[in-house]
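Worked example 4.2. Below are the chains of a multi-component assembly; read each line carefully before continuing.
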Amino acid sequence: MVVAPVATGFYLAAAQNASARCCTLTSGASPNATSIATLYDIILGLGIAVFLSVVSVIVYSVWKFRASKHPVAHQVHGNTRLEIGLTAGATMLLVVIATVTFIMLPSIVNPPNSDASAASVLSASLTSPTPPNGKEITICVMGRQYIWRYTYGAGCNNTAWADRLPYSYQEMVAPAGETVRLVIQSSDVIHSWWIPALGGKVDAVPGYTTYTWFKALHSGETYHGQCAQLCGREHAFMTALVKVVTPTQYAAWLGQQAAGISQQNDQVARIRRYLVGQGILTSSGNF
Amino acid sequence: MSTIEYASRPVPQILVHEVRHPRKTRQWLDWVLTTDHKRIGIMYLVLTFVFFCLGGTEAMMMRSQLAVPNNTLVSGLQYNELLTLHGTTMIFLFVVPVMAGFGNYFVPLMIGARDMAFPRLNALSFWLLLLGGIVFYASIFWHPPQAGWWSYPPLSSIQYSPGGGQDAWIFLIHLTGISSLVGAINFYVTIANMRAPGMTWGRLPLFVWSILIYAILLIIALPVIAAAVTMLLTDRHFGTHWFDPTNQGSPVLWENLFWFFGHPEVYIMILPGFGMISEVLPVFARKPIFGYKAIAASTIVIAFLSTLVWAHHLFTAPMPLVVLGFFMLSSFLIGIPTGVKIFNWTATLWRGSLVMTASMMWAIGFIVLFLIGGITGIFLATFPVDWQLNDTYFVVAHFHYVLMGGAVFTVISGMYYWYPKMTGRMCNERLGKASFWVVFIGFNLTFFVQHALGLSGMPRRIYTYQEGMGWSTYNLISTIGSYIMAVGLLMTLYNFAFSYKTGKIAGPDPWKGNTLEWFTTSPPPVNNFDVIPRVRSVEPMRDIRLEIEARTGKLQKTGGSEQFARV
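Applying the procedure described above to all two chains together yields the following structure tokens:
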């Protein structure tokens, strides 16, 4: 009675849009997301087995032991051996899940090396995830109501202004095949950074710096995500896109973005000088 | 009245008197001034069901908004207000106090006491709850709170939530908190001191066990949230910086304090429901509960572990990996005693003689839905998987399976079970069963697809979404399901309202129950029992029926219970 409409719904949703998922997590775009999806699948298998065995006992009981069919109840108070046995069984199941989790954990939290062809820069960080050979791209992610800002470059967390690092809003550009380390912060309330295809979410908590990483495998893809922690009235529109390009295109884009930003900064500076010269603004930039 | 007459009666079945003459005029004064645990219990139940309807209406508005992409039924601000009202209402004004309502009515009856230990304190609990609800709901005429039921700062700070609604929320937490705390102490003292002769801890009904543990958990958890919201209040108005990151405060401190309360709160909401199921199943399976000691012990273990798992709500917050590992394992551990309960309930059905009353159907429906919620809980306890699923609709589905499919189904099952005792009349069984199927189907349509929504990447608490995300069909199904569920719940509420006048007369023991509340009239008189029987097992009422049968040689006929096989 319940299964049919739900199944129809899954079918319709899948037919309507390829990004509608029924029962599994996204995988294949980044190794950490793939590992999480595998872990999920293992738990799903065990969960379905447990569900089916318990529900089949309940359905069988309701069908077989109804008062009309089974008028005399079996007066039993318990069975300690059965009780201990099933408790031990449930414990074993959880031990298995915990063991599998800890076995798979390194592939989720430890970033792999970038591909050999990639030209990553060396970064030295002791507190954040670093691939074995230390080569990675660093992008700072700053959340604020209601947009994400990305600053590109190793010093994005402290020398972004001095180094005139390029930045962008909402859409992140990232190179394929390289390990990208994300340094995540917030400037107002708590946000949560999440691109489902590129791994799990990390909260952006004001006053804290958190880290995550991804290694996008396919260039030409654009991945969607959005803020996952209620951050105010336009929380629903705090979206994020990650556009994956080839390393060459990435280098070109960085140069172009930096040039564009500096050109516009220059333009603002020119206008300000003009306004100050006209006496409209004071020299500190106020009206 | 004379006690000699009682002693000479051969059949010590129902020995109660109305000890006072009811008021003929201004009867409402009896309700306002009452300290009778039964009247207070009824007031709790009526009030909490009113809040349930309010919270449900808010839920329907949210589901209507999400039915189609880019809907403009409500704005982002209004949606945030709705989700805050809905969550806060359902938790603080419905599920927790409704359990106190059942506890108030049935704990003294089940342990053979004549009232709670502190009757006036009991009345205070109720009136504080009402005041909390009024303070909170009054804010809808000004600025309702909008930071969610967990109100994480800085969003709930004065800079980002300047409206008074946040303060109304804080006062709600304080008022309902004092209400629950006072009530919890009352329950503890009552259960510890006022049990019938012979009712040892090993003969305490499982519902009373669950209320005892509920009370202890409230006493452990509530001071923490009281402290936390006071800190939030001083941050907002008196210049402190507990949670203010711009002045060395930490929002993560709030997250820890809140969930140190918040996770025991989850078990505060569900444990009394477990207790009700443990009462309902053996009565309608016509056999003893399977593994009484295991169920009572697992309640204690769940309560202990529930104070050690709070940080599984913070798996995406800044925390060291080793902490995440600890909280994953402790959360797994809590699955074991919960599994023990599900196993014992299932085993209680096995080889029973199942009478499929409305109460029984809601109880069995609860086991199935809670099982699903329990299994999805294991996904969320595995912290790498939680990194993907946290704050998505998968979580919304999970906790509605455990709180709606869990707590609400048990509450309705308990209402159908105890309605004859509270009102003296039977509910309409056919309507109750029909209502069960409508709610069960609507519930699964609403919430099962939300797992898929979460896996498709839809975060919770967004007030609208774009087309082409793969979320539209699921959301539409979910909304249709919620309308179906609402119809089913209205059928049950109609049933409760109209059976009060039109239901069949129940008699003292319509189900052939096992516990002492069935040893008195329906509804019970003010003093509950003139004579309190000696308790010799977990099923004292069954012992009494057996003894009468042995003495009289006649089958006991009480109310409508002839259909039930076991004495």
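Take a moment to check your reading of the output against the notes. The helical segments of chain A are 3-16, 31-64, 80-109, 247-278. Chain A touches chain B through 94 residues (CB under 8 Å).
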